[in-house]
Structure formats: C-alpha cells, structure tokens
Specification:
Length: 185
C-alpha cells in the first residue's frame, strides 16, 4: 500500500514538474508592442520588439520637457525639444513571475537596460529665447513595467549615466529617474 502511494505521489510530482517547467519555458517578451507614453518630463511614441526570449529592443521618438525657475528668473521657464532613443532591455524575472502566477503579458516585469538618447537642436518650444545643444546620453538603467486594464501600462526606471554636449564638447554624469503612464495599441 505504501509503495502504491509513493509511486502515485512521485508520478503526480513528475507530471506537475514537467508541466510547470513547460509553462516557465514559454515566459518570453511580446513579439512587438506599439504605444504612447507620458510622464513628468515629456511624451513619447515607442515600439518594443523581441530579440530573444527575455530581450527586447525599444525605440522611441518624443518630446522631452525641461523646467527651471527661481529668484533669478521673472517667471518659471520651460522647453520642449525632440529626442530619439534606442534601448535594449533584458527582462530578468519573467520566469519567476510565471512561476509565482503573476502576469507577464505586454512585457510586465523588471528589466535592466542601456538607454541611448539623442537630443536635437532641430527645434524647440519654450517661453524663453533658449536653444538646446545637440547631445547624447547613455544610461544603464533598472526599471519595472506593469500592465493594467486592457491597454494601459506604467513604468518606473532609474539609472546614472553619461551625457555629452556636442556644441561645447564636454560631458558629465547624468541622473535619469522616470515614471511614465502609457496607452498600448
């Protein structure tokens, strides 16, 4: 009787283990995602395309927002200027999220990335007579992305990287902290 019980239990655990591994093995990023996002410092349109099971390439175009003020200025200033970004992302916890029964649809997960952004002086919208110098930023980032409702998402990311200004040929450290809410098509 004990042998039959042990045999049945081991058979059940083996089958459960096989099905669990199969489900975890299929934990991949989406083939492609298009969407719009907005945050405290701009608005962007993006595309995220799968390169491997846990790796995607995100490309985006948008308008970054800069705000300044203080006692040296008669009014608070703002500037909007165009940017183009490319960001490979490694979603490192998809299998763990599936194993815990959490959602991974629409690339819901935590990630590491290397975001490269080019800011252009092509045009700018501002309430001051100011120009934006051509510049590039390269920022290793950690972030998380979650989907909610049918077509909505939010992202939080942070990182410290490098910014280089092409007009004055100087660079320095750059802190990137972002929170975005978006609509996915």
């Amino acid at each position: 009787m004990k042998n039959k019980l042990l045999l049945s239990l081991s058979l059940f655990l083996t089958i459960f283990s096989v099905f669990s591994q199969k489900e975890i093995k299929n934990a991949t990023v989406e083939k492609t995602i298009f969407g719009l996002q907005t945050g405290l410092f701009g608005a962007w349109a993006y595309n995220e395309t799968r390169l491997a099971d846990e790796v995607s390439l995100r490309s985006e175009i948008g308008m970054n927002l800069g705000i300044w003020g203080g006692s040296f200025y008669p009014r608070t200033g703002y500037i909007l200027y165009p940017t183009v970004s490319v960001e490979p992302r490694y979603y490192y916890n998809l299998k763990r999220r599936v194993k815990l029964g959490k959602e991974i649809a629409h690339n819901s997960g935590n990630y590491f990335s290397l975001k490269t952004t080019y800011g252009s002086d092509l045009f700018a919208v501002s309430n001051y007579d100011i120009v934006v110098n051509n510049h590039i930023t390269v920022v290793p980032k950690w972030g998380l992305r979650r989907s909610f409702a049918k077509h909505f998402e939010y992202e939080f990311s942070t990182g410290i990287g490098y910014v280089h200004d092409f007009e004055i040929n100087k660079g320095g450290a750059f802190l990137d902290i972002g929170f975005r809410i978006g609509f996915r098509f």
